[in-house]
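Quick one:
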Amino acid sequence: MKNEKNKKMPETNIPEPTVRRMPSYLSHLKILKSKGELYVSAPQIAKNLNLEATQVTKDLSYTKIVGKTRVGYEISELITVLSEFLGFHQIKDAFLVGAGNLGEALIKYEGFKDFGLKIVAAFDINEKIVGKKIVGVDILHLDEFRNLAEKMNVVLGIITTPASEAQSVADLMVGWGIKAIWNFSPTTIKVPEGVIVQNTSIYSNLAVIFNKLNNQFLQQEQTI
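Output:
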């Protein structure tokens, strides 16, 4: 039996920018595999994703995987390693609060299952949608969140409410045992130390796009 102490384990203190890049590597690798490719090098990944080869090599080194001389990484192995490293290989259940347009879109999005996330129930206070189902997911009243979170041992919550309601929902989630919150509301929420929050603002990204477009138009006007 191998000595577990001598077994190489991936590092846990990974820079966040590295973690953010890794899903794009994984998606790219899956595309290459679908095309019948068997191996890929760091320079090839870098070229296709507009990155530096040294950056890709450094990022992948955190997983402890080693490429083969002259051929690079075995794609199937790298997909498995990255999936396990990122935690995408095991499905994690989540509750969503705010079953409006954005919430409904996330519930319907099938791509989450490829990255280890499953929305198992959604909650709202709007009586017009409470009691309905969205692609098989029950829309329940927010009052039912607490008992179900404990019963189903769900520790991941997703907020897709209006900004005015996000903090109060976050407070309830924390009080009901949620340990990590994915916040899609266009506002910052405050939580106690030890609770994980990831903010995803589509409006911030939209603002960046508009700003770049405006700058591009200005540059074009100046060259005319």
